[in-house]
């Protein structure tokens, strides 16, 4: 996926500090874009004053590399969309972006603002603010959602990275084909805690862990059914996809398609 370069607004005050800040922040953006942790760390002053306001956490330079590494996704997909142009005023720059995830009831987003201050070519101060936004509007439970993220030790970028990592794990490994798959196994395989995964599924996707698995298993059944030229026994496909209860499969199937498996196969045959 090609990621567009960060658009930039005019510098408010055309002084040397503004030009130097502009160059550092573009290098900062490029380091995130290319997932270059070494290049990113090279942009921070060892005396960095870094505050993650969502977690109410002060991060020292010695903690910063691990903090950034945990926030940086392994996949190629860009997780953040810039919602405003880069604003620069002297030695301060403001980045505004949104991490958008697909929930079961629509888009769920984390809207983030980073205020970065530059001195002698290095970032010496960062204030990062984030708010949980559901369906592009602030809900009454917004504060509760923010507190939950904070308790779980997740920054806005880290929630996006969690979504990307879970998607990659389930798409590539297809662990849901195992009917005995449980949350501790997923946590062990992905490196996230059970609480973090449960929070993401419940608060972002609006699903329980097992409802999420059943959706994946049902998609697998439909994919195999459509790929098969000869009629297949639907119950055998369900079991092969990880369903260990046919009654659960029939219920999920009708909820998703509006018809029973037998009616669906009959319609497809015709």
Automatic annotation (TrEMBL):
The keyword Transcription applies. Residues 160-267 form the HTH araC/xylS-type domain. GO terms for biological process: positive regulation of metabolic process. Pfam families: HTH_18, SnoaL_2. It comes from the Bacteria. Keywords: DNA-binding, Transcription, Transcription regulation. One of its GO terms (molecular function) is DNA-binding transcription factor activity. This is Transcriptional regulator. It comes from Pseudomonas turukhanskensis. The lineage of its organism: Bacteria, Pseudomonadati, Pseudomonadota, Gammaproteobacteria, Pseudomonadales.
């Amino acid at each position: 996926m090609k990621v567009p370069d960060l658009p930039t607004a005019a510098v408010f005050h055309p002084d040397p500090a503004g030009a130097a800040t502009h160059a550092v922040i573009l290098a900062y953006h490029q380091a995130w874009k290319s997932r270059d942790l070494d290049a990113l760390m090279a942009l921070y002053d060892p005396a960095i004053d870094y505050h993650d306001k969502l977690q109410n956490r002060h991060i020292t330079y010695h903690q910063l590399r691990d903090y950034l590494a945990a926030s940086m996704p392994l996949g190629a997909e860009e997780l953040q969309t810039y919602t405003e142009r880069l604003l620069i005023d002297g030695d301060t720059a403001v980045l505004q972006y949104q991490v958008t995830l697909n929930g079961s009831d629509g888009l769920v987003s984390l809207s983030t603002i980073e205020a970065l201050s530059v001195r002698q070519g290095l970032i010496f101060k960062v204030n990062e603010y984030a708010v949980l936004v559901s369906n592009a509007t602030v809900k009454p439970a917004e504060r509760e959602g923010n507190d939950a993220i904070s308790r779980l030790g997740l920054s806005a970028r880290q929630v996006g990275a969690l979504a990307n990592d879970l998607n990659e794990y389930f798409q590539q490994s297809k662990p849901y084909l195992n009917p005995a798959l449980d949350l501790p196994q997923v946590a062990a395989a992905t490196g996230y805690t059970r609480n973090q995964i449960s929070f993401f599924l419940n608060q972002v996707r609006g699903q329980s862990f097992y409802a999420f698995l059943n959706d994946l298993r049902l998609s697998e059944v439909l994919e195999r059914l459509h790929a098969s030229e000869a009629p297949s026994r639907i119950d055998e496909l369900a079991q092969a996809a990880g369903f260990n209860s046919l009654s659960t499969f029939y219920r999920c199937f009708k909820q998703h398609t509006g018809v029973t498996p037998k009616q669906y196969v009959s319609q497809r045959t015709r």
